[in-house]
Design brief:
The longest helix has 21 residues. The protein is an all-alpha fold. The chain has one domain: Orthogonal Bundle (Tetracycline Repressor, domain 2), CATH 1.10.357.10. Helices cover 62% and strands 0% of the residues.
């Protein structure tokens, strides 16, 4: 397996483990067992569990950054439309990357134990599907605040 493919495999497995167990309950052991690699192989690519988690966050933030557009100073109606479009793009990106979006919204705030209790209770309509519709039927607009068209 090429180094890029191995790194991608470790990231994919880590994402699955973080999504299933949460950041704090996931260990490097869980990741290497699921990836079927030696501990040394993991450390060739990542220095720690935090580093692999940060790499996953970097990937998600790059996708979010690509999805949202700068807002030009314009008439108030145009600004409101641009904000709404960016909120919808953000929600769509999180829905398309649901495992990482969920880990981000539920776990990332408390990665260093600071704010851990407040992050456990913070959830989003974007990731929880609380709109009452099935996930496949939900739209990104269901998690955006009401901004006049």
């Amino acid at each position: 397996m090429s180094p890029d493919a191995r790194r991608a495999q470790l990231l994919k497995v880590a994402l699955g483990e973080f999504a299933a167990r949460g950041y704090h309950a996931t260990s490097i052991n869980h990741i290497i067992e699921k990836a079927d690699v030696a501990r040394g192989t993991f450390y060739q690519y990542f220095k720690s569990k935090r580093e692999i988690f940060d790499s996953l966050l970097d990937q998600l933030f790059a996708e979010v950054n690509a999805a949202v557009a700068p807002i030009a100073i314009a008439a108030p109606e145009a600004i409101a439309r641009a904000i709404r479009a960016n909120i919808e793009a953000l929600c769509r990106t999180l829905q398309e990357n649901l495992p990482m979006g969920r880990v981000l919204l539920e776990q990332a705030v408390g990665v260093d134990d600071a704010g851990r209790s407040s992050s456990a209770s913070s959830t989003s309509a974007c990731s929880s599907g609380s709109s009452g519709r099935s996930p496949s039927a939900s739209s990104s607009a269901s998690c955006a605040p009401a901004i006049p068209p």
